[in-house]
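Person: I have long wanted to understand how a fold can be written as tokens. Underneath my words sits a plain record pairing an amino acid chain with its backbone structure tokens. Those tokens are not coordinates but codes from a learned vocabulary of shapes. I should like you to check that the lines agree and flag anything odd. The protein I mean follows directly.
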Amino acid sequence: SSAILSTDTTMESHFLEKTVNHAGNKFREQISLDIVMTSIINSMKQYPANNSLQIWGVRCLWNLISPSARHGQGGHSSIVSEFLRHVRTVTKAHPDTSLQAFYELVICFLSKVSSSNVCLHGCVDNFSSVLLDIMKVEKKSSTVAIHGCRSIYNLCSHEDIATSSRLVISSLHGVDVVINTMEIFPEHVILQREACMALAGLSVDCMQNTEKILELGGVARIDASFDAYCVSRFDESSLQAKIGACIALTSLATYPAALSAIRDAGIVKRIVHLMEEEDVPDKLQNSMKTLLESCSEFENVSAKLQEGADREQCCMALLANLRDVLPPSVIQRDKATWLRSIALHSMNAYTDSAHIQAMGCTLLSHVYVAFSTDSIGQARDIENIINALKAHTTCSTVVSSACMAARNLCSSLTQQMDSVDCDKLNIILDVMDHYRDDLDVIEQSSGALFALCTSSKNLGQIPEDKPIFT
């Protein structure tokens, strides 16, 4: 068989076609999946210009992926990486040929891989790049759009790669691709549902994606998805689109500017009226209720923290929420995300207020501790915290609160920061020197210094002229 396959691409296509038909049962049970999948990819690599063989190869791989089983001991990750590299090779082998059928199968395969337990560590960048490139090239294919958006949501739902996936997809203009897809297929309710879920996944704990969604008119697109329907308002596909829209809006509502956009669009009023109708299905009622609760919970604080709010309003809002997070209080993740957002917003708005900086840092500290095993903070938060410390080095309350916030942030991050520059370390060292007789400041600042060094990939090069261990 090997001798024939090496010379006859027609026979190879026939072999792969037969493999597809057997992949679901005995074939999967008797042979190591890693070996089989590697062999198929190697066969595909021999003839990148043979479109028929490529299509059958991807179909075969799709059948071999199990939605629940974890394959091998890390080998599957390298197989996915090898497949992604091969997709690039096929693209180069067909510079002037339409590959829509091949790309549609590739997207379906990636969607299945991302929804399974297949480990994607080490290939998130390449996975996202291939995925989004195909969505850009085949932007008029609803199949590519549906499974592409589903893959994005899946990547943002895997706990071990969710944070890195959101950042990678953001750098590749993934939000732009999803919203453009929604505009191309405004009446395709299944696609609208998948796109809404993709936006929901991208916006969780990621301010830059949320800001991009708002910039591109994402709230209006999600609103249009809620109104779209297929046969009737509440047929199953239309119902799922409405639920997806509610989930996306609920995720966005934890950000002050997004909440304002939702209210300005009249979405909340229309949902209130819709909930009063008798024929609304229960599962949609529950989704709308969750959205309204989120909007109501954060509405009062949002009004106080918009641009133009005075210091007293900011102080009162921070103080009220600070009481809610002190132990033994238990806060939900969406509330914690919101609290982080308003703390950073207030600190940026009133950099000269020592009181606001101290309360903001204290609020951040408690939020970081509450989710120490499931990081809610982001590495860029350190900039706000160090700025507070730098602006108020003469206020021991701010110094202590900022150092505690830096310490708790670093302890809660699931990934190391790329680097911590010496200026930040110098500020903390100066504080330690200035407050050498204040035990509370010394404890918090030394903890912050240690946390910054251990959470940084460059280990925070300590300046030689600071005898910190003396």
